[in-house]
From TrEMBL:
Responsible for microtubule translocation. May be important for the organization of phragmoplast-specific arrays of microtubules. Plays an essential role in stabilizing the mitotic spindle. Required during mitotic cytokinesis. It is found in: Cytoplasm, Cytoskeleton, Spindle. Residues 47-389 form the Kinesin motor domain. It comes from the Eukaryota. It comes from Apostasia shenzhenica. Residues 27-38 have a biased composition (Low complexity). This is Kinesin-like protein. The gene is TKRP125. One of its GO terms (biological process) is mitotic spindle assembly. ATP binds at G133, Q134, T135, G136, T137, G138, K139, T140. Belongs to the TRAFAC class myosin-kinesin ATPase superfamily. Kinesin family. KIN-5/BimC subfamily.
Length: 966
């Protein structure tokens, strides 16, 4: 049943605003509704429909036999409340438009009372149904009912007004095969704060977050709308039931003494329907109707509901809304000038439903229990009074589809602009007319505030006046009652007096009759006489007391009368004063209102003229703007051309710059190449030199080795010769030997000196040539460095000029240029970095070559260990001293020690012969040149000076061939 066929999507109009029956569509239909009653309604006004529903006694109430004090007569549409005051039963009867007794069913109430209203909604009316009553009397039961979802196509019997209305709407639209769209809103008013029950929940855990209060705004046309209220587009009844179930659970409920699940808030569920219709001319029109279903919070007084602490405040706020509702109803019924709609949000929201253009139905709910009688009577009074409110229902203007679509488009535009403003966070977008309106409102709002204050004080005074009036009425009633009772008392007293007189007369008549009878006994007579006298006394006493009390009563009544008269006089005087004052206030107030009206008119005129001026200004501005735009466009094209030429110039500059960069790079590469060639040749030369030096060293070593070997050999031979001839020609031989040794040593020393001198000169030559070549290299390096620096400076200046040019270009250019420039500058910086890198590389290669140079010098320094002259001299002197010692020793040996072999004719004494061993002689040999070099290097490492210039006897420890042996 919910698969209704929709001919096309319809878009609902602006959010959360009740469609206005009075609003004229710009291109709306001119045709009237065609409903004659509507014209009538419009002129006369239609009374709000008030329905009364009495719930049955609850199980608990039945269990304790709670007395029932309400009786309903559905046929006569009457409700009677039985009141027992001072043991007197007072019945109060109220008549309503419809009455539903305790046994009434949900479906009956819907069919009889609500269904016609739903039909009117579908005809294009705005209708409101609200449930009013004490807590626990069945407001929610009536509006929502027990279960919502229909089983097997039919509702459960306790389904309330809302689900039934929804189903009727969908059924009717389906039956009409209508093209329509529908949206629903659901809000809650709690403690004077509005929350959106349809709003998505922000957090599962935080109840308060999901119930963010939202603002009630003036729409500038006298109405209100709830800003940002969520609207849900619905296409099936099922969707609405789901929404209802979800939202109902969100409503604030609490347990009170009177209801376990008491709704602590007012809720308004609204359904807005747009239906497409076609005129006979084939024009498409949109009809719009809205149904507001309001479930008010309990109207009970705070103490009875059992509300405590926070709940008491809650009840206060609820009551504030309901009190204002009551005051609004009073004001509307009494046609007083001021209706305090603005005093509560509830009345602001329901403004159009109370005395406006909406069709309204109040369902007042009551309990039959005696315990609720006071509240029940209040509800009955309230509802009964509300019956007199007159609304002027108007069917909503039908709109042409095209006009509606146009409106919607402009709405979408506005929303888009608002959205973009909200996104960019640069304020709020306001359409021009809205802005003007807001400005006017800003001016009006302080006046309005003053007016509100005045209205407040006026309504206070009004209330006080009413209270005073009612007290006076009460007092008057009391006086009349007292006068009446006084009269009755006086009459009673008179009656009593006459009765007493009669009785006295009767008794005296009796006595006379008795006196006349002689036969009566004296004793009896005396007794009777006594009795008579006693009776007479008592009668007199009674008479006295009665007359005293009567006089006292009289006095009292007179006093009271006097007091009352004076009180009434005072009150009348006060009332007159109040009346005069009220008149004055009314005059002031009406003057104020008139002034306000005048001001509002002026403001309106002013705003109109401002709008006109603004329009003309806008027109002129738009022309100027057009011209300006044209000139801007022209300038733009010029600028574009300039930009293009700038760009081409820049491109040229860039090409030049790139070329320069390229050349610079080529130059750098060539220079590097030549450097590398020079370096290679230098290294080759170095190689050659080092190999030469190596050869020379080897040769000199070899020569020295050979010479030493020869020396050794000769020395051995000589030693052998000497040994052989020692025995024969010791002295001679020794002399010869000494001379030979001297000569030989001299020769060796000379040859060594010569060889060393030759080696030194050759090495010095090599060193000087190496120094020359390194100097040469250094010079070349310096020149190359200068050149490279020059090139790199050139490159840097070129890059700098290029960068400056680009920056200029950038300053003048567009964003594209900026991009280009950034590319160029990055290229320039990359080129600069390249140049830097190249120069760094060059510097590092220079450093490397310098290091190489230094290392070479070090190598030369460490490898070339040339014995100096001093050393040679020392060596020579060492040898000289050595040979002297040898000479001395040999002399000793030969002259003293060998001469002992002369014949003494006795066995010669055993003597120890100190003959040098073979190892010792081996030790005397000069070590090989490599070993010598090695030991020298080691000595150098140990911190001794290699050159040995300042050290004495550098070779003494290493080789002391001719030290003291013997
Ligand atoms: N006409 C009725 N027939 C049967 N039961 C009813 C009827 N009216 C009310 N009830 C029952 O009375 C109880 C209270 O009703 P409900 O919650 O609708 O009261 P209420 O007026 O909405 O109270 P509150 O203002 O505290 O929310 C519920 O259990 C409901 O089922």
């Amino acid at each position: 049943m919910e698969n209704h066929q929709k001919k096309g999507p319809l878009i609902p109009i602006s959010p959360s605003q009740t469609p206005r029956s009075g609003e004229k569509s710009s291109k709306g239909s001119n045709e009237s509704n065609g409903n004659p009653s509507s014209k009538n309604d419009k002129e006369k006004g239609v009374n709000i429909q008030v329905i009364l529903r009495c719930r049955p006694l609850s199980e608990d109430e039945m269990r304790v036999n709670t007395p029932v004090v309400i009786s309903c007569n559905e046929n006569r549409r009457e409700v009677a409340a039985v009141q027992n005051i001072a043991n007197k039963q007072i019945d109060r009867t109220f008549t309503f438009d419809k009455v539903f007794g305790p046994s009434s069913q949900q479906k009956d109430l819907f069919k009889q009372a609500v269904s016609p209203i739903v039909t009117e909604v579908l005809e294009g009316y705005n209708c409101t149904i609200f449930a009013y009553g004490q807590t626990g009397t069945g407001k929610t039961y009536t509006m929502e009912g027990g279960a919502i979802k229909a089983k097997d196509g039919d509702f459960p019997s306790d389904a309330g007004v809302i689900p039934r209305s929804v189903r009727q709407i969908f059924d009717t639209l389906e039956a009409q095969n209508a093209e329509y769209s529908m949206k629903v809103t659901f809000l809650e008013l709690y403690n004077e704060e509005i929350t959106d029950l349809l709003a998505p929940e922000e957090s599962k855990f935080s109840e308060d977050k999901s119930k963010k209060p939202i603002a009630l705004m003036e729409d500038g046309k006298g109405g209100v709308f709830v800003r940002g209220l969520e609207e849900e587009i619905v296409t099936t009844a099922g969707e609405i039931y789901t929404i209802l179930e979800k939202c109902s659970s969100k409503r604030r409920t609490a347990e009170t003494l009177l209801n376990k699940q008491s709704s602590r808030s007012h809720s308004i569920f609204s359904i807005t329907i747009h239906i497409k219709e076609s005129t006979p001319e084939g024009e498409e029109m949109i009809k719009c109707g809205k149904l507001n279903l309001v479930d008010l919070a309990g109207s009970e007084n705070i103490s009875r509901s059992g509300a405590r602490d926070g709940r008491a405040r809650e009840a206060g706020e609820i009551n504030k809304s309901l009190l204002t509702l009551g005051r609004v109803i009073n004001a509307l019924v009494e046609h007083s000038g001021h209706v305090p709609y603005r005093d509560s949000k509830l009345t602001r929201l329901l403004r159009d439903s109370l005395g406006g253009k909406t069709k309204t139905c109040i369902i007042a709910t009551i309990s039959p229990s005696i315990h609720c009688l006071e509240e029940t009577l209040n509800t009955l009074d309230y509802a009964h009074r509300a019956k007199n409110i007159k609304n002027k229902p108007e069917v909503n203007q039908k709109m042409m589809k095209s006009a509606l679509i146009k409106d919607l488009y402009s709405e979408i535009d506005r929303l888009k602009q608002e959205l973009s403003a909200a996104r960019e966070k640069n304020g709020v977008y306001l359409p021009k007319d809205r802005f003007v309106q807001d400005e006017a409102l800003k001016k009006i709002s302080p006046l309005k505030r003053k007016l509100d204050e005045k209205e407040h004080s006026f309504s206070d005074l009004d209330q006080r006046y009413r209270q005073a009036k009612s007290t006076i009425k009460e007092k008057e009633y009391l006086i009349s009652y007292l006068l009446k009772s006084e009269k009755a008392l006086v009459e009673n007293a008179h009656q009593l007096r006459s009765e007493l007189h009669n009785a006295a007369a009767d008794v005296s008549g009796l006595f006379s009759k008795l006196e006349r009878k002689d036969s009566i006994e004296d004793g009896n007579i005396a007794l009777i006489k006594r009795f008579h006298s006693q009776l007479a006394e008592q009668l007199n006493l009674l008479h006295k007391t009665v007359s005293a009390s009567v006089t006292q009563q009289d006095d009292n009544f007179k006093r009271i009368e006097k007091e009352m008269q004076s009180f009434v006089a005072v009150k009348i005087k006060a009332t007159e004063g109040i009346n005069v004052w009220i008149e004055k206030v009314t005059n002031v107030y009406s003057n104020c209102i008139r002034n306000m009206d005048v001001m509002a008119d002026e403001l309106m005129d002013e705003s109109q003229s401002t709008i006109g001026k603004l329009n003309s200004q806008i027109l002129s501005h738009s022309c100027a703007l057009e011209d300006c735009l044209k000139s801007i466009a022209l300038e733009g094209t010029q600028l574009l051309d300039e930009l293009k030429s700038d760009l081409s110039k820049m491109e040229d500059k860039l090409a030049n710059f790139t070329r320069q960069q390229h050349e610079g790079k080529v130059r750098a590469v060539e220079a590097t190449r030549s450097i590398s060639m020079i370096a290679t040749s230098f290294f080759q030369v170095l190689d050659v030199h080092s190999s030469k030096m190596d050869n020379m060293l080897k040769e000199s070593g070899k020569i020295q080795n050979e010479q030493l070997y020869e020396l050794e050999k000769k020395f051995e031979e000589c030693a052998a010769d000497e040994e052989r001839q020692l025995l024969i020609k010791v002295e001679e031989l020794l002399k010869d030997s000494n001379a030979r040794r001297k000569r030989m040593v001299q020769e060796v020393v000379d040859s060594l000196r010569k060889g060393a001198a030759e080696g030194t000169t050759a090495l010095q030559k090599e060193v000087s040539s190496a120094q020359d070549s390194s100097l040469n290299m250094r010079e070349k390096w310096c020149s190359y460095m200068e050149e490279t620096e020059k090139h790199s400076n050139e490159d840097i200046t070129a890059a700098e000029t290029g960068r400056i040019c680009l920056e200029d270009g950038l300053r003048n250019g567009t964003e594209a240029n900026q991009l280009l420039c950034s590319n160029l500058s990055s290229a320039a910086s990359a080129a600069l970095q390249d140049a830097d890198l190249a120069s760094k590389k060059l510097l590092s290669s220079v450093d490397n070559s310098c290091n190489l140079d230094r290392r070479m010098a070090e190598t030369i320094g460490t490898t070339l260990i040339i014995p100096s002259r001093e050393e040679l001299r020392q060596l020579e002197s060492g040898h000289y001293h050595g040979s002297l010692e040898i000479k001395e020793n040999s002399k000793n040996c030969l002259e003293k020690e060998y001469k002992v072999d002369e014949s003494t004719c006795s066995t010669p004494k055993r003597r120890s012969m100190n003959i040098p061993s073979e190892e010792f002689i081996e030790q005397l040999r000069t070590p090989a040149f490599e070993e010598l070099l090695k030991s020298l290097k080691q000595a150098n490492v140990e911190g001794k000076q290699i050159s040995g210039m300042n050290e004495s006897h550098p070779f003494r420890d290493l080789r002391a061939p001719l030290t003291t042996v013997n």
